[in-house]
Amino acid sequence: MTTLTLTDSSQTAVGDLALLGLLQLVSPALPIGAFAWSQGLESAFELGWVTNENELGDWLEGVLEDGLTQCELPLLVRLQQAWANHDGSMVAEWNDWLHATRETAELVDEDLRLGAALVRLLGSLELLPEEGLLPKDPGYVTLFAWAANVRTVPARQTLLGFAWAWLENQLAVACKAMPLGHTAAQRLTERLRPKLVMAVDHALQKEDHELGPVLPGLALGSALHETQYSRLFRS
């Protein structure tokens, strides 16, 4: 029989609170408006680049491998560490770097609006960083890293949570715009869950000079979405 000591119990409680904080952060119910954006996927449907479940899976795998693994996920590690060190200059540097990688006005607007919404939410919860640490025009990834730091979420779990939230959002887009049935969405979740773990493994090994997304198809789709005649998602 295993007996928990007071120290064990305290550590378990801290870990439980961190997990619940992460679940709160990645929940679709988080009121920041992430559901309103498709990240070029709606254009991929309109242009016939993605027409069925298998093609959607291929698209998502490509975005994960050449996008999140190269950009957002390794950046989260660096930002979370900078927040933990109270290094405002490094936070600002990586925040600016991320803005520079956004290839369309739509992608920049999404990042800034979600970041601003997360600032308002964290402010209402009295969880904003101390004065002077928050960079000008903080993006969503920057604030996600801060929230994970406040919740004492380990870096690996932060990356898994962010990747999971991205996948759920993209599948929600497909269910609305493709349309994709919910059972098919679950099949894609099963297909991509191992890919998320692999993406985190690779992201944790990236050196600074290796960072940067390579997503010409997504960038083109996002640019075309800005003038798409009929659309469900924001531009």
Give a verbal description of the structure.
The structure is a single chain. The protein is an all-alpha fold and 235 residues long. The protein has one domain (38-225): Orthogonal Bundle (Urease accessory protein UreF). It contains ten helices and no strands. The chain has helices spanning 6-26, 41-46, 53-68, 72-84, 88-101, 105-124, 140-150, 155-177, 182-203, 216-225. Helix 3 (53-68) runs parallel beside helix 9, helix 4 (72-84) packs across helix 7 (140-150) and helix 8 (155-177) packs antiparallel against helix 9 (182-203).
Topology overview:
Layout: H1 6-26, H2 41-46, H3 53-68, H4 72-84, H5 88-101, H6 105-124, H7 140-150, H8 155-177, H9 182-203, H10 216-225
CATH architecture label name: Orthogonal Bundle
Percent of sequence in beta strands: under 5%
Number of strands: 0
Number of helices: 10
Instruction: Determine the N-to-C terminus distance.
Output: 58 Å
Mean pLDDT: 89
Major sheet attributes = none
Radius of gyration: 18 Å
By CATH reckoning, the class would read Mainly Alpha
The CATH topology, please?
Answer: Urease accessory protein UreF
Uncertain regions: pLDDT < 50 for 5+ in a row?
1-6
Number of domains: 1
CATH superfamily membership = Urease accessory protein UreF
Percent of residues in helices comes to 55-70%
Q: What order do the helices and strands follow?
A: HHHHHHHHHH
Shape field: globular
Structural class estimated from helices and strands:
mainly alpha
